[in-house]
Amino acid sequence: MNYNEVYHDRDIFVEDYKEMNRSFKIYVYPHRRNDPFANVLLPMGSEPGVIMLVKVTLRRKKLAFFAGKINSPVREKLLQVWRNDTEIFAHSGRLKTPYADELLGSKFCLHVKGYEVNTARIADSLYYGCVPVIIADYHDLPFADILNLKSFSIDVATLDIPLLKKILKRFSFEEYLMLQRNALKVRKHFQWHLSPVDYDAFYMVMYELWLRRSSVRLPSNAFVHPN
């Protein structure tokens, strides 16, 4: 596998995406501002530039960062091992510093399985140019059939939590820069906009649905009015 390539097959993806845009009809219904998950992703605001993020990487002082609730044995193990470490910042409870500053100040951002695998952490870390480290066995990550996850993220088995620092330090500076550059290439696919933008998170989810259009089957009475 070519770890420099962020797509499994970019040409097929681009052609299929064009066909999806041409043939797939999408109707968007507005949500209320207080709906669950309405504000789960970080606001776009002014997006950090690629050059700025690479320069910040050269000054990132923390090896790795995690902050979150201790709601699973995996997170509990992470905190037990690394809570007081000087290079891996593993934190539970309220942060004393802004969350974005921690993402900007860390080389690797830990995505640790909680009561569910899927959170906004991967999108957050990519947004700020922090290489995601996924610590969760038997997981299904977003867009895995489109994106080459190994080109911009690291997978660590939960049993290897005590070896986390050793694993991360195996990556040379050049290898880390390759991972980070690839992370910046794919971050557009994980970003959410109030009005969808081509290839953003909304369109990528629609593309995933479009790919599975022939495998989704609904009962014949699904659209029959009860009256």
TrEMBL record:
Q: What GO molecular function annotations does the UniProt record carry, in alphabetical order? A: glycosyltransferase activity
Q: Does the keyword Methyltransferase apply?
A: no
Question: Which membrane topology term applies here?
Answer: Single-pass type II membrane protein
Q: Where is this protein primarily located?
A: Golgi
Q: Which domain of life is it from?
A: Eukaryota
Question: Where is the protein found, in the record's own terms?
Answer: Golgi apparatus membrane
* UniProt entry keywords in alphabetical sequence: Glycosyltransferase, Golgi apparatus, Signal-anchor, Transferase, Transmembrane
Exostosin GT47 domain segment(s): 55-170
One GO cellular-component annotation of the UniProt record comes to: Golgi membrane
InterPro entries per the UniProt record, alphabetical: Exostosin (IPR004263), Exostosin_GT47 (IPR040911)
Any stretches that span the bilayer, and where are they? none
**Similarity comment:** Belongs to the glycosyltransferase 47 family.
> What name does UniProt use for this protein?
Glycosyltransferase
